[in-house]
Amino acid sequence: MPSFHNGAVEIAYLDEGEGDPIVLVHGFASSKNVNWVYPTWVSDLRKDGRRVIALDNRGHGESEKLYDPAQYSIPAMASDALALMDHLDIARADVMGYSLGARIAAWLGLKQPARLRSAILGGIGIAMIEGGGPGENVATALEAPTLEDVTDPVGRTFRAFADQTRSDRLALAACLRRPRAPLTEADVAKATVPVLVVLGERDFAGPADKLIAALPDARLVSLPRTDHFGTPKDFRFVQAALDFVRA
What is the separation, in whole angstroms, between the first and last Cα of the chain? Predict the structure, then answer.
């Protein structure tokens, strides 16, 4: 798998297909393979005539593991995606992120709008503005000696997932303890790129009404009977994303 360095941090990525580029940014405790390759996102987008670029976020997958929470700020993680675009000489692309990746995509859309054709935000809603999501309970679960030592139900879910994907749990705990600065409605109102928000009806990151209302050019696709973890595997998400980038 190819890699490059953003400063001192080594970032693994994939670059497949031909056509207009789309950059995929995965969620917390996941990887480019788990979020995008195994659920067939990469092959579906390639079949649709797209050049698909996906990175492993720092601390995840095959990218370098870091243990200082300050190195996992959203601007720092977004700089990896931007540096990858520079590394591949991509001036402008659609950017799709899921969960933590959606926060990264949103930051890029607000701070580097000239580099984005559009932004697709999956698994995020009001939490983009008000904060929320996995916190210290999950970080503590990741640091526990075994899954059996974890009693918090949300912590158990993430710990089991981290064990299943053989992730570096200490790097993930550091990522969770990153400096957090949720976007405000005023921040979001400054967006100039078209945005698609895809959110499951049962997603803890929702609802999305306040986020959609704040964005100047946004469309919402709601996934009935779908929770946060089911969203990346939901074909309705795939179809909505394909329809959006085609437009």
Answer: 32
